[in-house]
């Protein structure tokens, strides 16, 4: 009931775009698309933060909440589907010299992983090296296999001018009419109690 109500609210806000016919719930998409697709709040593969140093991605103008994150705290994800969707997304970034579309995504089972530019006029090169350091931040803030997204920016570019993107994962609901690029920033929750960051703070 909670998931249905949340999806209904998102569907009223977001515009629907039909998924390409080649994509099914059991496939990982390899296609780049120029506009967002259909779906709901959701998911990604998680990496432990224990062996990484604090990156400049973790702060912006001394703002402790940068990069901005949005968590679907009530939406846990299937582990296998999430791992495969995230792998499918990162493989797309490996296989091309630059990502110049508006958004790309990968679907596996019940999870979609996505990468969406803030503005269609932003065609800066987006590589795996820029994206990969953000994945552990979603894990830290939202928790392992919890739907979430995080804001990313381009080196030496002004995020205020639209040079940014959303990276995240969420549950995949075929035919719901939800635009995941818009849904990426709808949740008001910046963190969840399941987040590794919250757990480490509460135990210290």
Automatic annotation (TrEMBL):
It comes from Purpureocillium lavendulum. Keywords: Signal. It comes from the Eukaryota. This is FluG domain-containing protein. Residues 1-16 form the signal peptide.
């Amino acid at each position: 009931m909670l998931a249905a109500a949340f999806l209904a609210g998102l569907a009223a806000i977001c515009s629907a775009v039909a998924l390409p016919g080649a994509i099914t719930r059991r496939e990982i998409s390899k296609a780049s698309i120029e506009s967002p697709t259909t779906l709901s709040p959701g998911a990604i593969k998680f990496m432990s933060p224990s062996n990484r140093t604090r990156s400049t991605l973790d702060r912006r103008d001394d703002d402790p909440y940068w990069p901005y994150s949005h968590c679907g705290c009530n939406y846990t994800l299937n582990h296998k589907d999430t791992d495969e969707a995230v792998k499918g997304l990162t493989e797309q970034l490996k296989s091309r010299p630059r990502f110049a579309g508006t958004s790309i995504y990968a679907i596996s089972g019940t999870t979609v992983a996505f990468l969406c530019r803030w503005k269609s006029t932003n065609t800066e090169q987006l590589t795996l090296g820029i994206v990969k350091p953000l994945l552990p931040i979603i894990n830290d803030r939202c928790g392992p296999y919890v739907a979430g997204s995080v804001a990313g920016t381009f080196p030496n570019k002004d995020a205020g001018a639209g040079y940014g993107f959303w990276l995240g994962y969420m549950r995949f609901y075929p035919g719901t009419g939800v635009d995941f690029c818009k849904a990426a920033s709808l949740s008001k929750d910046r963190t969840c109690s399941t987040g590794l960051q919250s757990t480490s703070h509460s135990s210290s």
